[in-house]
Design a protein that fits this description.
Spore Coat Polysaccharide Biosynthesis Protein SpsA, Chain A, single chain, alpha/beta, 13 helices
């Protein structure tokens, strides 16, 4: 991966952040003249946000491109990075994601790609729509990172830290941009993701993300200026019952639609319905994403009744009239 980045951006500084204790067999970086390693003391639990902040601090460039270790930029994505520099420097975008879809590779495909050969994408989960994807690779200016006080180090391990960073930038700096093209997600051994998502750390990360999204302008200003702590605001919004993590909506006897309420602020005590869900989504994200989500709903909720499908058809037609 480092070889790929070094070859794509030979005239740019690449900072590799490692959490102490460092690997007993560190990578030999001698062949990469533009790559340097920094070691970060961030405790015993993986602390991604601390690593990201220290890497940005250590960089000297005006524009920062963050690339996750399990991400592989296609040639088109790399070109989008080059073309996107002016967009973030000019303020056209607060943050830019130089890809529009992701290919999730198998272990065998990952070996093929890293060997320098072309991957046959028809055998992988290809072209996943990433309208909400805020990780893998993004770019922003160092001035933007400073203005939003970086990544919130309340977040531990991984999960939702990229979303919260994006929400702050969108609120305080400028709009989100995304290009076409794809990026590859490399296969790697990992913890039981489903179990992790049900655990305390991930739950708190989602609540922290909800807090960033929900903060009033005055609370956001106090937080950024240091007048209010993250913990105090978390307690305040928790008491306001604004930080529910997930809503499970039973659509049929066999299907459950999980909706992340860190994204959508549904009114409390109102019976859930397709109409309420998609009206809320339409207001937050616009018609294009809402139509994508409805199509995904049809795919994943295979036991929808004729009446529910008819309701979705009606909603789709109403949304299309807005386009």
């Amino acid at each position: 991966m480092l070889g790929r980045l070094s070859a794509l951006f030979p005239d740019n500084e690449i900072v590799l952040a490692e959490q102490l204790p460092a690997s007993t067999s560190p990578l030999d970086l001698s062949e990469y003249r533009n790559v340097r390693r920094i070691e970060v003391d961030a405790g015993t639990v993986f602390h991604k946000t601390r690593l990201l902040n220290e890497a940005v601090k250590a960089s000297s460039a005006d524009v920062v491109v963050m690339v996750d270790a399990d991400s592989y930029l296609s040639d088109e994505a790399a070109k989008s990075v080059e073309d996107g520099v002016d967009g973030v420097l000019s303020g056209k975008y607060g943050i830019l994601y130089p890809y529009g879809s992701v290919d999730y590779l198998t272990e065998a495909q990952t070996r093929v790609l890293l060997s320098g050969d072309t991957v046959n994408s028809k055998f992988c989960d290809h072209g996943v729509i990433m309208s909400r994807q805020t990780g893998l690779c993004n770019m922003f200016t160092k001035a933007t990172w400073e203005k939003v006080t970086g990544f919130d180090e309340f977040f531990k391990s991984w999960g939702a830290e990229d979303d919260a960073f994006m929400f702050k930038i969108r609120r305080l700096v400028g709009p989100v941009g995304r290009t076409a093209g794809n990026i590859y997600h490399l296969f790697h051994p990992h913890v039981d993701t489903d179990a992790y998502r049900k655990g305390y750390t991930y739950m708190m990360n989602r609540k922290a993300c909800a807090l960033v999204r929900r903060m009033s302008d005055s609370d956001m200003s106090d937080y950024i200026s240091g007048k209010a702590s993250f913990d105090s605001l978390m307690d305040k919004y928790e008491k306001m019952h604004r930080l529910d993590c997930e809503l499970h909506w039973l659509c049929t006897k066999s299907d459950i639609l999980s909706i992340d309420t860190t994204i959508y602020d549904f009114p409390k005590g109102v019976p859930m319905s397709f109409g309420l869900l998609f009206d809320t989504m339409l207001a937050e994200d616009g018609p294009e994403y809402t139509l994508e989500f409805i199509e995904s709903t049809r795919v994943h909720l295979k036991a929808l009744t004729d009446e529910q499908n008819a309701e979705l058809d009606s909603i789709v037609e109403a949304i299309k009239r807005r386009l």
